[in-house]
Amino acid sequence: MKYSGQTRFLIAVDCIVFGFDGEKFKVLLIQRGFAPERKKWSLMGGFIQPEESLEIAANRVLKQLTGLEGVYLEQLQVFGDPHRDPVERTLAVAYFALIDIQQYEKQINHEYNAEWFLLDEMPQLIFDHEQMVEAAKKRLRYKAALHPVLFELLPEKFTIPQLKNLYEGLYGTTFDKRNFSRKVLSTGLLVKQKDKDKGNSRKGAFYYKLDKQKYSENFQAFLKFIPNPDKFL
Amino acid sequence: MKYSGQTRFLIAVDCIVFGFDGEKFKVLLIQRGFAPERKKWSLMGGFIQPEESLEIAANRVLKQLTGLEGVYLEQLQVFGDPHRDPVERTLAVAYFALIDIQQYEKQINHEYNAEWFLLDEMPQLIFDHEQMVEAAKKRLRYKAALHPVLFELLPEKFTIPQLKNLYEGLYGTTFDKRNFSRKVLSTGLLVKQKDKDKGNSRKGAFYYKLDKQKYSENFQAFLKFIPNPDKFL
DNA sequence: GCAAAAGTGTTGGAAGTACACCCATGG
DNA sequence: CCATGGGTGTACTTCCAACACTTTTGC
């Protein structure tokens, strides 16, 4: 039995994949291999299959692009403008992902011509993909102001100055290192390690690891990492 | 030209319509007029049409149900489980709406057997509609803890005790009236009127109106209406 | 004159911000 | 020994939460 007299549509899943290189935010893009817009840059996407849920489709697409599984993935919104894809009406469910750019480098699937772009130096994208990136950026800024989600972008061991860089990159500003450090440590989410990262200074900065337990317990909590979050949204 | 070899799907828009009767939260439901699940209660929904964007579809559905236009409407999320509709795979884009229940009463479209239910006394709903209501409730709690969105549920003139009731209803708790009143007045969003509502007390409570200008300017701002929001999410 | 809800003020504690100095190290 | 980034402590202010009494008026 079917519903009669109704139109059916293609559904795509498109993923905005964010990374952080220690300095700046990046987005992973691919060069589209098929018409239309062949050779233009695009988000990673794919059509959903008959027996596939959205989450599964998004994870599949992400795995194809990055080789990674179990990364942070969140539904952003649906883009449904009737003419967003000139070929045929397609609704796109946008997801955004946060991945550790270093792990990615080991696992990359070379079948795709994927490339990292600095978030503020992106090429033109196909269709409404730039809008999607814009929306994802906004959502991430919002979310990160309240929840410790940015840890998803860091490697297992990281330093406080790195973490500070990350937040500063996202909000395009600088934070006071004393207050910043006090604030993140006061969450109790970080476990100090014995070794240091000597890459960026003579003295070296202590590594920290995330307390995974507390992280998942406190993920929903409002943490106010950012002073005056209003300014940035 | 079309994309070949891909499956197409039905897309529905489903609306969770919230109202507040002065005491409790309510949801607007309809009795489904066609099979399957005829006579069971359901959210208001409809299939999207070939040339219709999602926002337009959601507004159309909402207008059919309530007769109202220009009400607060926000995309919630997509529900895409392959078997959520037993008849045929259908993806549902859920929207939630906040309406002034009093205005609604004047404009109701009687073509539909729509009925208000107390949020915590809902009948069984079809498909995954209960999940949708659950998600909408959660989203609303989250949003209202930070942004002045609940005013959308009130009539043009309202009193502070009413507003307090509204927040208490949503979070299932009570707030200190002195702190509550100070907090909402300090936003500068309210304009005191000369007349009082004598319905609930001998003394009467002053009416307030929303300063629409400031409301739209400050909508994105973090207002922290709720003490310890963590507890409620 | 009393019951019932509305309205208002103060105070102590916590959290947040601004700000300046010492530390460790490699060259 | 000095330049560079890492790390820490304090005083001030602001915000928040807790709490109790007075006001109005219909009966």
UniProtKB/TrEMBL annotation, chains A, B:
Q: Which domain of life is it from?
A: Bacteria
Family matches, as Gene3D superfamilies: Nucleoside Triphosphate Pyrophosphohydrolase, Winged helix-like DNA-binding domain superfamily/Winged helix DNA-binding domain
Q: Which Pfam families match?
A: NUDIX, WHD_NrtR
Signal sequence: where? none
Q: Where are the transmembrane segments?
A: none
Q: Where is the Nudix hydrolase domain?
A: 8-140
- Please identify the protein, giving its name as recorded: DNA mismatch repair protein MutT
Which organism does this record belong to?
Answer: Adhaeribacter aerolatus
